[in-house]
């Protein structure tokens, strides 16, 4: 399914910088989920979030390191960031970043945190169940009320991972993945 705009929320990243990042990520068979350049007193921080096309969050540390090495070399060669910086390349993690329309469509039914660019009905922060994402509008259940937020109004968003008892259950002795023998 192709969504109409599929615009990322990292619109504050200059086009030239995004133009350096996206092709490298794509060349590694991955997708750019988000990119955030935090300016201020150096070193600045460029945080790049990548994922598989299946959006399963299964990007290993080795693949993140490969993308980071290539991306760092390209950024430095192009002198793309005018101050000293640190580069962080990561996968979406438990509290998955929602930055594209397809991320919101895939998160329907999940609990999410959304921060808007401007106040909507007197608030900028919403936390609740994402009921639907249709026509560029998020419908959320927040504190028993339904709220609508236009995709264009979203400044930041992420899923809220719901930990369960199983997340903290001890595996039986010998069942740890490091102890398994490849056959």
**Low-confidence runs:** 1-8, 178-183
Work out the oligomeric state of the chains in this entry: single chain
Structural class: alpha+beta
N-to-C SSE series?
HEEHEHEEEEEH
Rg, rounded, reads: 19 Å
Keywords:
GMP Synthetase, Chain A, domain 3; 5-stranded antiparallel sheet; 22% helix; 183 residues; alpha+beta; disordered C terminus; 2 domains; SH3 type barrels; single chain; globular; 3-stranded mixed sheet
Summary, kept brief:
Helix content is 22%, strand content 34%. The chain is α+β, with helices and mostly antiparallel strands.
How would you characterize the overall build of this protein?
The protein has 183 residues and is α+β, with helices and mostly antiparallel strands. The protein folds into two domains: 15-90, RimP-like superfamily, N-terminal (GMP Synthetase, Chain A, domain 3, 2-Layer Sandwich); 101-159, SH3 type barrels (Roll), CATH 2.30.30. 22% of the residues lie in helices and 34% in strands. Strand 4 and strand 5 form a beta hairpin.
Write the layout of secondary structure elements.
Blueprint: H1 15-27, E1 31-38, E2 44-51, H2 61-78, E3 85-90, H3 101-106, E4 111-120, E5 123-134, E6 137-142, E7 145-150, E8 154-159, H4 165-168
Parallel strand pairs: 2-3
Antiparallel strand pairs: 1-2, 4-5, 4-8, 5-6, 6-7
Helix pairs in contact: 1-2
